[in-house]
Structures are given as structure tokens and as C-alpha cells.
Amino acid sequence: MTTAVQAAYFTFGARGHLPEGTEIQERSCTLFPGAFARLLHRRAANLPALDSSPRASPPFPRLPRCATLAPMKLPVTEFEAAYRPTGDFRLPEHSGSLLRGVLGRALRQTGCSTPSDPCPAACLRRGRCAYSRLFDPPLPEPLPHRLLRGATEAPPPLLPLIPRPGSSVANPIVLGVRVLGPLSADDTERLLAALQQIAALRFGTSGTEVEIAHVRRLPVPDRPLEFVPGEPGDGRLHLTFDTPAWLTHKGRLHTAGDLDFRALFRHVYRRLTTLSALYGELGPEDEARFPELDRLAASVRTTGASLRAARWERHSLERDARHPMMGLLGSLRFEGPVGVFRPLLEAAALTLIGKCTSHGLGRLHVDAPELSPPR
Predict the structure, then answer these.
(1) Lowest mean pLDDT across 43-57, 99-113, 152-166, 300-314
(2) Cα dist from 106 to 33, 111, 197, 225, 363, whole Å
(3) What is the rounded CA–CA span in Å between residue 49 and residue 69?
(4) Domain contains 328
(5) Among residues 169, 224, 328, 333, which is most buried (max CB within 10 A)?
(6) Which range marks the domain in which residue 207 is found?
């Protein structure tokens, strides 16, 4: 897999363009649209100098340096925003829907194709505005790949990177955003504007106000990252779900008893090939490789499982309705010929897996010691 990644630090210039080398920092945004508009169009030259002090390690896993599946290609762009609550505020146990909700409301205001009368709920002009393209994209016509035949909807390319579950007093509140696939300059501009517009909205049922600590596009290597297939090798692998993974089989949530390595591999492979077919490039080699990999996955043994099911509800402000949410938290340990699969799982850490990834579900990380040559 070759992942083309383009990123830089940005801030708004005279025409809303984002010149390289600057960022918005420690900028309070009041709750008045006019003040926000003035902030949005300030020239970069008027902004304070960049803070060159060392930054703390990011709270979310960043782009891996190696994954797999050449010749698949999947462009990726990442952003980060931090907000300081002006009063007492506690993130809920599962904060993905809250953070996704405020970002969605902000993007309706900055990215709607009819900004004077934005859609209150379902997008009426799907595919024609930034909100729709990032949160509710239509399937392209004609379908770009035969793998997509029978699909009824496209997975959203925008992934909010949220804190791990747990009610907490977060100050600042840090929201990461990862976009899979090409991202136009216009949509980049609107997304950054939406991350700022969040400061003009209220958080949670308490209506907490926030101020912007920073909004930036994250730096990554300015050259395509080349991902090569994993080398065969035996060993152990430890996988942890950082946010609930909504993985189902025959309509029900997986359990520790039936989520073996082969089932996990199938979820991962389906996710990677679907995303590459929609938002990147998928070669025939990747399809042809599946049967062989599937047989090999069946020989990987589960040596430990510590999983629990999380169930909760989210409230849709636009529709004033409650929706059930669920997913698996915890870890799995595997042993066997995992060398080929390790890069696949590292790629899945980038794309998230399962349902409701647009709410931050399905984030994972992989730990694996050195592998021994295959027997």
C-alpha cells in the first residue's frame, strides 16, 4: 500500500487560504458570528509568533510508518483542535457522539452548499457540499470498482479521533480529525473553519462555552509513504480496542468467544479494500490475495481474550431522537503466523474498523514483539 499524505501547519490568510508555516494558537473565539468572521479573515501576518516549545505527545495514534497491501493507495490528511471550557465541564463516558455532533453542526454552517439556509438534518444536496462529502457521502456513479456492487452506502471518510472511554474533566478538550481520500483545498478550508466555529457553539446539555487553544493541520512526511506486504513470520500479537469496536456477525455484536483471528482479519480486510476502492486505488492483486490470507488467518490461535461489551445511547440533536450504540472494549492475544498480518492491522489502526467509525468507534492499536522466521 502506498499512502500519499499531504500536510502542513496552516492559518487563515487574506482570502481564507492557508499559507504554510503558521497556525492558530491561544485564540479565543467569542460566541458572536461577526467576531468569528473577523477572526476567520485576519491576515497571518497579524497573528502572534509560533510557540516553538516542545509539545506533549499527541493523545491519538498517528500515521504508521509502515502498513501493507501494495499496490493499494489511500491519501490521508490529519487535523487537531483543542478547546478550553470556560466553566466546569466533564466529557461523557463515550464522547464520540458529542464531539462528532458539534463538529457536524459547525460543518453545516461552514460547509453547506446553501449557507444562508443550511439543512437542519439530512443533507438535501448530497455530494454537493463539504458536510455531505465528509459525513454523508453518496456512492459514486458509476461505481469505481466491482467490489462495491451491492453496497447501499459509502463509509464516511471523516474519522473523529476521540479520547478513550471514561468520564473525565478534560482541559483542554482535544479533538483529532482524520480524512481518508483526496481532500480539496476548498474542503480543507471549510473543515478548518468548522473546527474554529465549534467555539461559537455550546457543548453538551449544560451548554458549556469553549475557547480555542489551537487549530492546526498536522505535519506528516511530505512524500508518499510506501507500504510493503508483511514478511512471513511466527510470533505473538497483542491487539487493544481503544474505543468500542462495533463488529457484528449475523446481526449481533461479536463476543470474545467468536471473534477469532480469522473473523477479525475479515473485518479488517473488508474495511481496507472498501476504503481503497472508494477513496484511493485498489489493484486486482489485493482481491486475488484474499483466499490465501484467509486460509492462513485460520491458523492463527487466540491465546487470550479480555473483552467486554459497551452499550449506550446517543442523542441526535437534529432529529431529536436517541439511537443505540455498542462495541467491544479490551484486548486480544494471538499466536502463530502473524507476520503477514501485522501491517494489515497497523493499517486498520489508521482507518478504524467496524460500524460508526464517523463517531470515533473502532480505534485500535497493535503491539507485537520481534517475529521468528516461519517454520
Answers:
(1) 43-57
(2) 12, 8, 6, 32, 24
(3) 42
(4) yes
(5) 328
(6) 2-217
Q: How confident is the model at residue 57 (pLDDT cuts 50, 70, 90)?
A: very low
Which H or E element spans position 325? strand 321-336
Domain boundary among 201, 217, 233: 217
Of residues 190, 194, 220, 277, the one with CA closest to residue 76: 220
The x, y and z cell numbers of residue 134, run together, are: 465528509
Residues 207 and 243 in one domain: no
In a domain, 373, yes or no: no
What angle is formed at CA 60 by the lines to CA 59 and CA 64, rounded to 5 degrees? 135
Looking at 217, 243, 275, which one is the last position of a domain? 217
What pLDDT is recorded for position 298? 97
* 252, 344: one domain: yes
- What is this structure's pTM? 0.78
User: Which residue reads 454537493 in cell numbers?
Assistant: 128
Cα–Cα distance for residue pair 65/32, rounded to 1 Å = 42
The answer as to whether 157 is a domain residue is: yes
130 plus 108 within the same structural domain = yes
Question: Could you tell me if 88 and 160 lie in one domain?
Answer: yes
Who contacts 352 (Cβ-Cβ below 8 Å, separation ≥6)? 159, 271, 360, 361, 362, 363, 364
- Per the structure, the count of domains in the chain is 2
Greatest C-alpha distance within the chain: 68
